[in-house]
Structure formats: structure tokens, C-alpha cells
Amino acid sequence: MITPQRLSLARLPTPLQPLDRLSETLGGPRIWVKRDDLTESIGSGNKIRKLEFVMAEALQIGASVVITSGGVQSNHCRTTALIAAKLGISCHLILRGKPPTSIDGNLLLDELLGATISYASAAEFTDLDGLYAKTEQSYQAQGLRTYSIPIGASNPLGMWGYINAAEELKTDFVKHSFEPDYILSAIGSGGTLAGLIVGQQLCQLPGKVAGFNVANDKSFFHDKITSDIANWGQVFENELPPPAIHIMEGYVGPGYGIAGPEVFDCIRQVAKLEGLVLDPVYTGKAFHGMLESIGKGLLDNSSNIVFLHTGGIFGLFPHRDSFTRPDSPQA
Predict the structure, then answer these.
(1) Does 16-45+155-323 match 47-153 in CATH topology?
(2) Distance CA 13, CA 282 (A)
(3) Is 62 in contact with 95 (CB distance < 8 Å)?
């Protein structure tokens, strides 16, 4: 099997920690959290694991500009901007939405890290390939070499981040002397879950890998992840058995990046009980979905459940108004 080059960018391994107060309060299985929100300071979250491999290729081809895309509060874009700054490469971000009246959260960090930002409407974003091509051409006309990264770095190369994480998890389970019934994660672009599924097969990781989609629907991600895994097998010359893809839907809420009050209540509860901070775009929705699934008895009377904390804390701040208590004193 072909294995790609990799940069050492994340602070690994990340800890696996039990949430015992929360588990006791719920009266259900023991919940553990894989703290991938601790992979780096500003670059925290799951994206940096993928970018260790993707940015290695960018350096290998001699790219002077990396181009990627996402929402205005994209964790992936913020992490790409950070790594580009560390490596001395220019970064161009194509963000879906209008320029905000105030800069906050991930977008503030994008600006501080020196990324060039262009905005695209929802309609323009439907032709993302065209936006990439136009941006590439503008830099190439200046004699610069470009390297384009898909949303979330979710491609066969980026999948290696969570193929390796599966091996790390297996070591965690030996250290803590248990085997999980489930390993759960949010699904935003599909690359993290695809990598975990491949990693599970390669290193015989115990437990059922499943995810909660925070955008689109179950059918979309089933097709996307199936395609990603097939592409990975072709690129890296490793044919795997047809994967089992488990997606638990019903927790997108009003839409991508928009959370209902139940998600903000979940974030507040987990923060108060465990000092663990989730975000309303990815981990808050998925964690809420996990707790509801436990309450409904949908997780097969599990004894141990592992939740992958994929980061996203900087995306919390633009939602500050949703955490204002009704009885809070007014300024």
C-alpha cells in the first residue's frame, strides 16, 4: 500500500477522557471524549490532522499559494490559514456568504493570519469548481504556483488524518482497558468519518463507527463517503471490502450553521458539568444527537461510547446572543 508524506503539525496523541459526571447524571453508558479540540491552539480541531498530509503535498510541489473554501466561520479555512502562515505560504479563502459587518470568531483569525479572502453568494458557490479555477488563474497569471484544497480537506489524502487517528484510538482503548460500543462524530464534509471507517478496517478498531450529519442528509453523505473511500482505495492501491456506513440523521436543525435552543442548552449543560466546550455548528449538534439517541435507547444498551470532539470553539463566539439568559442583567 502506498503511504503519503506527512508534516508534524498537530500535538498528538490527543487525550481520551471520561465524562463521568455527565454519565452519572444521565444514568446511561459511560461517555468518553477524544479531545481532538486539543490538537493545536489556534489550529485546534480535526482539520489539522488532515492538513498534515495535504499541506505536505503542497510543499512537495512547490506551491506558493494554497486555495480553499468554506463558510464564513469555517474551522477548516481558519486552520489552513494558520498552517500556511507557519509554512510561509500565501493562503486564499473562498468563503460562502456576504462580508459581515463585524469580524468575529474564525473570520477574525483568518484576517489576523494574513489570508486573502473573497466572498461568494450561495448561488455562486454552487459552481465551486469555477470559483477555484478563476482564483487559480489569477495567481498563475502572476507566475505563482497554486495548490487547491477541497472543503474540509476531505479527499483521499486528507482521509489519512483519521486513518492514523483510528490507530491512536486503538492504543487509547488498550490504555484505558475497554472496548467501545460506538465511536461517534459530527459529519460536516464526510472526510473524518470516511477516514475513521478505513482506519477501523486497517487496524481492526473495535466498536461501531457512526456519525451525525450537521448538513445535507443521510443519503447525501452515504454516497459521498462511499465515493471518498472508493477513491482512496484507487489512489493508494488498497481495495477494501464494501464499508458499513452508519449515519444518524435528524439533528441538522434549521440548517447548516444554525442551531435550535436544544443545542445551546446541551452546550451549556456539558460545559457546566464537565468543563468541556462544544460548538453550535458541529459538536453541539452531534453531542445533542448522541444524548437523545441514548435517551431513546437507540444505541443498543451500550456500556462505553466514545465521542470525537472535532473542535470548533472559535465558531462559538458569533453565536453569543443565543447564550444570553432571559434573566441576565441588561447593559
Answers:
(1) yes
(2) 22
(3) no
Q: Which helix (H) or strand (E) holds 90?
A: strand 90-96
Distance CA(283)–CA(278), nearest Å, equals 6
Domain ranges for the chain, please list them: 16-45+155-323, 47-153
**Domain 47-153: which topology?**
Rossmann fold (3.40.50)
pLDDT at 325: 58
Backbone angles phi, psi at 249, to 5 degrees: -100, 175
Cis omega (within 30 of 0) for bond into 13: yes
DSSP state of 252: -
Mean pLDDT of 161-187: 98
Q: From the candidates 74, 154, 189, 293, which is the catalytic residue?
A: 74
Q: Is 303 a catalytic residue?
A: no
May I ask the CATH architecture of the domain 16-45+155-323? 3-Layer(aba) Sandwich (3.40)
Over residues 301-319, the pLDDT tens digits come to: 899 999 999 999 999 999 9
Gap between the Cα atoms of 133 and 237, Å rounded: 29
Beta carbons of 79 and 45 less than 8 angstroms apart: yes
- The greatest distance separating any two alpha carbons of the chain, rounded to the nearest whole angstrom, comes to 62
Q: Helical H runs in the chain?
A: 20-26, 47-60, 75-87, 105-112, 122-125, 128-140, 160-176, 191-203, 218-235, 261-274, 283-295
Instruction: Enumerate residues 6+ apart whose C-beta is below 8 A from 184.
Output: 210, 211, 212, 286, 290, 305, 306, 307, 308
Quick one: 113 exposed, middle or buried, by C-beta within 10 A (0-12, 13-18, 19+)?
Answer: buried
Q: How many CB atoms lie within 10 A of CB 73?
A: 26
